[in-house]
């Protein structure tokens, strides 16, 4: 159904002005709405990206190895990556809303205000013109009315004087004729003004007003259409990112479905399995016989002390230092040693393959130089070939050595004979073999004499490591960043604090590497770094 404001709303100029003003206000409010929504999308994207970065695994070697070993860690890392991609899509949506809608609507609003102002100025000029024509008509009408009344009075006076006095009657008749002529001229002016006003009025309501109001109507329809386009563009901008977001959500779902609890529990076995058999029954030792009673008390105490040394193993002075682990990995349990050696063998094989590929490439290059001397000197390749040859010899020798160690571990693990004195203790924890123990005891006999007969010192507080420390000297204790340890002795002014780990390892660490929390009951209780 078609309509025309010029014909339907010819007398609603003020209401049309108010309505178009309200429409522009609505357009500005919608523009502000889209702008604020874009800001919310951008803020959401930044927060999601920050959250993903916050919970992303640390890039340390231990965490990276752990994250790659378990399916739930891999799935969570994949979820965080997909979440970062979702944040990118929300940022893209915010950018599209700003560039395609907010900026365009702001520019269009200014143009719309200028166009509206021009149309209503034309309307006011037309209104002023018709009002001026109406005032002129009213003026000529009042003048014609006044002149007619004056001519009528002059005629009555002339008729009355003509009956009484003929001399005065002639003068009165002349006056009446003049008034009649003036009335006739006023009548002509009134007719002319009336005709002009009717013409102006017809032109105003049938030509000027319809044209002006039609322009205003077209402007209003364009404004509404622009709002419609902005809403469609906003929806399309969001729909554009939905497929990517959907793929991210599908990837998150796939990551969740890829978690395998049974595989992760098997991986725990692969990582921590020692390969030792559980300890057997302890034989009964009869001390009630006369021969047992003849044993001196000192020997009995020595035996108790020796047993306590093997079971407790508090001091790091008689333990192998992590920084000087043997090349054959003999300090590890059999299963872990086998895995470590197998990993090294695989790495050596890869290096050998790379060296062989490089050797083949050098040989081809030397052959080309020999066939085409202008391309290069064949002797220039010889030094590099010699280096590759020595490197291959070194790698092959290292490979043979590791294979021997691996075969030794496999033979021991497949040997069903009695267990060695080392292995698992009664509590199931790993202990070193007797030869290694005696070897380290001989290196640190003075520490054995000083500490082995002592009871462990009580803990006077706790500490948290601020940095990683690799203990290379006897008496020191290695630690990783963030590890919690017990404090057994404060710093005596030499920059070292004595700490303990799990009632099995004890030693000194740099005081500046830890943050100490002493118990309130300890002497001089304080917290220091």
TrEMBL record:
Occurrences of domain REM-1 (ranges): 331-408
UniProt cross-references to Pfam families, sorted A to Z: FCH (PF00611), HR1_TOCA (PF25610), SH3_1 (PF00018)
One GO BP: endocytosis
Superkingdom of this protein's organism: Eukaryota
One GO term describing the cellular component: plasma membrane
SMART domains linked: FCH, SH3
Domain named F-BAR: residues: 3-264
Residue span, SH3 domain: 458-519
Gene Ontology MF, one: lipid binding
Assigned keywords, A-Z: Cell membrane, Coiled coil, Cytoplasm, Cytoskeleton, Endocytosis, Lipid-binding, Membrane, SH3 domain
Region of interest (Disordered), residue spans: 155-189, 408-433
Listed Basic and acidic residues bias regions: 155-173
Main location class: membrane
Location within or outside the cell: Cell membrane; Cytoplasm, Cell cortex; Cytoplasm, Cytoskeleton
Residue runs in coiled coils: 338-405
Family per similarity comment: Belongs to the FNBP1 family.
Name of this chain's protein: Formin-binding protein 1-like
Protein source organism: Cynoglossus semilaevis
């Amino acid at each position: 159904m078609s309509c025309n404001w010029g014909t339907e709303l010819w007398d609603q100029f003020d209401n049309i002005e108010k309505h178009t003003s309200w429409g522009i206000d609505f357009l500005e409010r919608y523009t502000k709405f889209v702008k604020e929504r874009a800001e919310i999308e951008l803020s959401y994207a930044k927060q999601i990206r920050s959250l993903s970065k916050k919970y992303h695994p640390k890039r340390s070697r231990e965490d990276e190895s752990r994250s790659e070993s378990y399916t739930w860690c891999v799935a969570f890392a994949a979820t965080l990556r997909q979440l970062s991609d979702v944040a990118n899509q929300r940022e893209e949506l915010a950018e599209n809303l700003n560039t395609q809608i907010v900026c365009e609507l702001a520019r269009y609003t200014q143009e719309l205000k200028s166009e509206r102002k021009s149309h209503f100025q034309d309307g006011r000029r037309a209104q002023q013109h018709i009002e001026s024509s109406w005032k002129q008509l009213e003026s000529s009408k009042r003048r014609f009315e006044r002149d007619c009344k004056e001519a009528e009075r002059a005629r009555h006076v002339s008729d009355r004087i003509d009956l009484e006095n003929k001399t005065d009657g002639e003068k009165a008749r002349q006056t009446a004729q003049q008034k009649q002529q003036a009335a006739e001229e006023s009548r002509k002016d009134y007719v002319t003004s009336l005709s002009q006003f009717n013409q102006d009025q017809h032109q105003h309501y049938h030509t000027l007003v319809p044209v002006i109001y039609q322009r205003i109507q077209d402007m209003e329809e364009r404004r509404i259409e622009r709002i419609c386009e902005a809403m469609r563009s906003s929806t399309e901008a969001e729909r554009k990112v939905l497929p990517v977001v959907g793929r991210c959500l599908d990837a998150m779902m796939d990551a969740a479905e890829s978690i395998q609890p049974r595989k992760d529990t098997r991986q725990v076995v692969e990582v921590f399995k020692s390969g030792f058999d559980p300890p057997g029954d302890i034989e009964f030792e009869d001390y009630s016989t006369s021969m047992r009673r003849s044993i001196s008390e000192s020997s009995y105490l020595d035996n108790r002390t020796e047993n306590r040394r093997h079971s407790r193993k508090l001091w790091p002075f008689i333990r192998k230092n992590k920084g000087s682990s043997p090349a054959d990995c003999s300090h590890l349990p059999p299963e872990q040693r086998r895995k470590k050696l197998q990993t090294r063998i695989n790495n050596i094989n890869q290096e050998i393959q790379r060296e062989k590929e490089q050797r083949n490439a050098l040989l081809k290059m030397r052959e080309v130089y020999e066939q085409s001397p202008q391309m290069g000197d064949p002797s220039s390749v010889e030094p590099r070939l010699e280096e590759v040859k020595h490197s291959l010899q070194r790698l092959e020798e290292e490979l043979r050595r590791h294979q021997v160690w691996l075969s030794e571990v496999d033979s021991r693990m497949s040997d069903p004979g009695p267990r060695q004195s080392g292995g698992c203790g009664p509590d199931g924890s790993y202990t070193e073999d007797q030869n290694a123990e005696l070897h380290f005891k001989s290196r640190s006999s003075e520490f054995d004499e000083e500490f082995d007969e002592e009871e462990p010192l009580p803990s006077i507080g706790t500490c948290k490591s601020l940095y990683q420390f690799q203990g290379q000297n006897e008496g020191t204790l290695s630690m990783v960043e963030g590890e919690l340890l017990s404090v057994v002795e404060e710093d005596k002014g030499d920059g070292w604090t004595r700490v303990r780990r799990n009632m099995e390892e004890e030693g000194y660490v740099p005081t500046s590497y830890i943050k100490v929390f002493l118990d309130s009951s300890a002497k001089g209780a304080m917290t220091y770094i």
